[in-house]
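HUMAN: Forgive my ignorance: could you write out one protein's sequence and backbone structure tokens?

ASSISTANT:
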Amino acid sequence: MNGRGPVGPPRSGPVRSPATRRAGGDPLIRLFHVSKSYGPGSVALRDLSVEVRKGELVFLSGPSGAGKTTLMKLLFAAERPTEGQILVLGRNVARLGERRIPALRRRIGVVFQDFKLIQTRSIEENVALALQVLGRPPREVRSKAFAMLRRVGLQHRRHELPAALSGGEQQRVALARALVNEPAILLADEPTGNLDAELTIEIMDLVAAAAARGTTVLVATHDQALIRRYARRTLRLAGGRLLEDIPGGSI
């Protein structure tokens, strides 16, 4: 079903799956006819309209080059759309001034496939950094960093450097860092791409638990077995276009 969006003169509103319509509250993410081009003959996204509500766990599926990573970058303002409008937490990302981008990113947690941990800092320091940049008091930083590491089962290794941990453990640290300031949105770009099957489930269970606590989660993955296992709403992309918006339980 297509509705009309609240901004601009869109030709039709964002795609809403049945699962989305049942969700409570207003959408935290809304895209209206979004396209992203890197030059002639290099179009990453084409006329994408979709919305995601609070507490949804949504998979972004598609082959390499489908536009999954580009969409993630647009949502946390690492890039700007060539056309269209993007509302994230009520803010028009396409028009957001550079000075206001940090405030938006403080409410968005991001997990990358390659972890992006600071190798010269301890596990606890990596997680604490997300709170320190917000100016939180040292006592609160230590308490919340420890509590989050305990949630992912790594509090006993908090003083070690990332290189001492396995790939799965480093990904858990990256997830703890992304969630420690209780973001409204979590973006996970191929978070299990380098992990074996057992560790993949371990990480995805933590991601699903974040959604159950009310965080809106988008997970980019090409792992169809993972999508079938969790049976959540799935946006299938190909060639930068949205081919299907499949409600949870339909795969």
